[in-house]
Amino acid sequence: MFYVSYIPNHSNNNRFRFLIFPLPFLIFIICVTTSATLIYDEKPDNVSSNFSYTNKSTNDSFSGYWTIVNADGGVIPRGIASSVVMQDGSIVRMGGGKTSETWHSSNYGINWTEINSDAGWGERVGQSSVAMPDGSIVLMGGWSGNSYRNDVWRSADCGSTWTEMNSSAGWEGRAYHTSVVLQDGSIVLMGGLRSDPMKLFNDVWRSSDNGVTWIRMNTSAGWLERYGHSSITMPDGSIILMGGAKTIGDLNDVWRSTDHGETWTEVTRSADWSARANQGAVVLSDGSIILFGGNTYGIFLNDTWRSIDYGKTWTNVNTGPGWSPRDLFTSLAMPDGSIVLIGGESHVFMNDIWWLIPTRSSNSLTSVMRTEGEALVPDFNTNITYGAAPLTVAFTDLSTGSPARWEWDFGEDNRTWSSTGSLLRNPVHTFVNPGNYTVTLKISSRGNQ
């Protein structure tokens, strides 16, 4: 048995030192060293592209940079998988290609663990999945290799085990549809296609019981039949649907529903971005929409667009983000306001992972601004002061100044956060071996200094 003791240092460096040692040694305190850990608008070594945009007419600014956090995601490159972000900031990735595997990452996609090699719902692509308010995951439809599916599956343990909620949901089997979760916990499913024979959909379905039963909200939503579109839930509970592919050609219209998908209003018939399908889109905490990548008439894209008025007008905030042009990737809005891009396809399937930390000062729907002149001061504490090894420690960030990024180095073998650390705000880490550990928290802010 081993024990650990530590003393926190609440100066400007936020560094703890741990000591793990065997019984019957006495517990004692190890001195804490100090070092500078603040970053002000510095560009890290692995950043591939940064950008900045200011709209002088609205005093709205948006800036950030894309960082490649993993050039090889740790799984076989595959397209048309689905991913969700959980409440703790971890990512669960499901299916894609000829597989029903489930993978989990707790550090923005830097490291991955296979948690299920055969989830039970069979090989499929083009399915949709959502993370529910109760912490479960619901997966719907897709193409299984010989049929278009309309089954619904649910996992209550981050994808480790799955339960079939409905083998035939009522809506016609399909793939490349979209689904969103509303504030009341209901799921709304929209559009998609099947090719046996070719049929595109513009119907809308809703479930209020984790996918067990479904109600058809309408048979024709008003927007054209399509697949490969994007759908998001806004902070006010409305649904925004964007772009996609029709039978011949692509679309760049934007539609909005304020009644759970029953009726729809065209926000714009032709958005500022080019018509496209299989793009990524997320909504940020300030209510702005970020749309990026996709495919337009066979040409892969990697541009980035932003709207602060429900998709009515758009600004090109980045024409060269560093990641290569692609479609069929996963885009995730993380709890800390950052964006994660996973894999995709561009003649070949990819499994690289990119991370964007956007910063903004705006008159947008809900402005998120730092207090001018507020200094960044790193600080954190832990849930325990000693215990038996292996010791699991929960770290809680107490930093002030509204940092945008957290980098934890747990001091193991002098390696950095990219292999043994964490980018989460409040990580949990297990120290397995006895020894001395100096834990460092580095915080940074991008813009609004």
Task: Explain how this protein is built.
This protein is an all-beta fold and 449 residues long. It folds into two domains: 2-37 and 378-445, no CATH class; 47-361, Kelch-type beta propeller (Neuraminidase), CATH 2.120.10. It contains one helix and 34 strands. It is globular. It starts with a strand and ends with a strand.
Please give a quick description of this structure.
It is built from one helix and 34 strands. By secondary structure, it is an all-beta fold.
Q: What CATH first level of the largest domain would be assigned? A: Mainly Beta
Range of strand content: over 45%
Which overall shape is indicated by the principal axes computed on the Cα atoms? globular
Number of strands: 34
CATH superfamily of the largest domain: Kelch-type beta propeller
> How many domains?
2
Residue share in helices?
Answer: under 10%
Mean pLDDT across residues = 80
Structural class category: mainly beta
Largest sheet: 6 strands, antiparallel
Alpha plus pi helix count = 1
CATH third-tier fold name of the largest domain: Neuraminidase
Low-confidence stretches: 1-49, 361-373, 414-419
CATH architecture of the largest domain: 6 Propeller
Which value, in Å, is the CA radius of gyration?
Answer: 23 Å
How far do the termini sit from each other? Answer: 47 Å
